[in-house]
Design goal:
The chain has ten helices and twelve strands. By secondary structure, the protein is α/β, with parallel strands linked by helices. The two termini are about 25 Å apart. The chain is globular and about 65 Å long. It has one domain (about 5-345): TIM Barrel (Alpha-Beta Barrel). Residues about 365-374 have low confidence and may be disordered. Helix content is about 30%, strand content about 15%.
Length: about 375
């Protein structure tokens, strides 16, 4: 029986060769938002890894939208050209696809990088004004963000559109909108951070209005044959916050607008969160969402073993598996999973002789040691 993890899956015109996704991993290594050699190496290793889809880290849509100054961004020609360099590498060397995750940090903007101690970065040290649904600071020692006016909300939506257009020009094959982990879209969704009394606040339909509006606007300019998904936090892990039931309603509304998948994570909004962690601790959220929609569901979070991933798929908890820390630790995770599950995956031609079946005397160039069709 073929392993479910290695079954292909279609997202519009993209035929994903398997169900393994490289999740966004912030590197805090961009020079004013421009991807450099580190990003080409970091993402390029996954182009050669056998993963079906590799997503950029959160890629910010405006200078004041950045979580930190060293975050990857996509609002200038230089940034677009740098992303194009990575997209071209995937086109040349990968059977998988390259996608861009677009984000706005909202009240999390103007942060100091974790490797520099974290916390708020004030203007005198190069920081900038943060904007959010409501004037609620991230923490007690942070300033309150400036609430977005209705006109400013429209401008932010246009920033998402412009960044998506740049991603298209750069050669990305997929867009993921970041609606999770306490960033701006999530801030609009959650009643903890959204205290507005206009059309963007209060009721669930109003709190979903910004997320759905951004999706509609980006879908309108994105090629019909290429997919768009959204990453969401299924729960805030805080009583009275965003809930799994609300996530299901958001998923249904996104699907009705033509969303191609939903990437289910959790948390990240509030320091009051009380997360219960463990292997596959978020798969139950994905399973709940999957039961309510037809579009594919990605699950993520402490999934590290091939058999664990296979079991999640076979038991119908999700359609795809996203990995981050496990593929940092083991960039060849896909190859090793294929070996463990008895599957044969394509290696880059330069790495064919690394296939365990070819470790015998003489290697790939000896008669009888070639892979059929190679």
């Amino acid at each position: 029986m073929k392993a479910k993890l290695f079954e292909p899956l279609y997202l519009r015109s993209l035929r994903l060769p398997n169900r393994i996704i490289v999740a966004p991993m912030t590197q805090f290594s961009a020079d004013e938002g421009v991807a450099g050699d580190w990003h080409l190496m970091h993402l390029g290793q996954y182009a050669a890894s056998g993963a079906a889809l590799t997503l950029t880290e959160s890629c910010y849509i405006a200078a004041n939208a950045r979580n930190a100054r060293s975050c990857l961004s996509l609002y200038s020609n230089e940034q677009e050209n740098a992303i194009s360099r990575i997209a071209q590498f995937f086109d040349m060397h990968s059977d998988g696809f390259f996608g861009v995750q677009l984000a706005h940090a909202g009240r999390k903007a103007s942060a100091r990088e974790p490797l520099k101690g974290g916390g708020y970065l004030p203007p005198e040290e190069g920081g900038y004004e943060a904007f959010a649904p409501s004037a609620l600071p991230l923490m007690d020692n942070w300033p309150a963000p400036t609430p977005l006016s209705a006109a400013a909300v429209s401008k932010v939506t246009q920033n998402f559109v412009e960044a998506a257009q740049r991603a298209k020009h750069a050669g990305a094959k997929l867009i993921e909108l970041h609606g999770a982990h306490g960033y701006l879209i999530h801030q609009f969704l959650s009643p903890i951070t959204n205290r507005r009394n206009d059309e963007y606040g209060g009721s669930l339909p109003n709190r979903m209005r910004f997320a759905l509006g951004v999706f509609e606007a980006v879908r309108a300019i994105w090629p019909d044959d290429l997919p768009i998904g959204m990453r969401v936090s299924a729960t805030d892990w805080v009583e009275g916050g965003w809930s799994v039931e609300e996530t299901v309603e958001l998923a249904k509304a996104l699907e009705a607008l033509g969303c191609d998948y939903i990437h289910v994570s959790s948390g990240g909004l509030s320091t009051a969160q009380k997360i219960v962690v463990g292997p596959g601790y978020q798969t139950g959220f994905a399973e709940t969402v999957k039961a309510a929609v037809d579009m594919p569901v990605i699950t993520v979070g402490q999934i590290s073993e091939p058999l664990q991933a296979e079991t999640i798929l076979r038991t119908g908890q999700a359609d795809m598996i996203a990995l981050a820390r496990p593929v940092i630790f083991n960039p060849r995770w896909v190859w090793h999973a294929a070996e463990a599950l008895g599957e044969n995956v394509t290696y880059p031609r330069q790495y064919e002789r690394g296939r365990p079946a070819l470790w015998g005397a003489g290697g790939i160039n000896q008669p009888g040691n070639r892979i059929p069709g190679k």
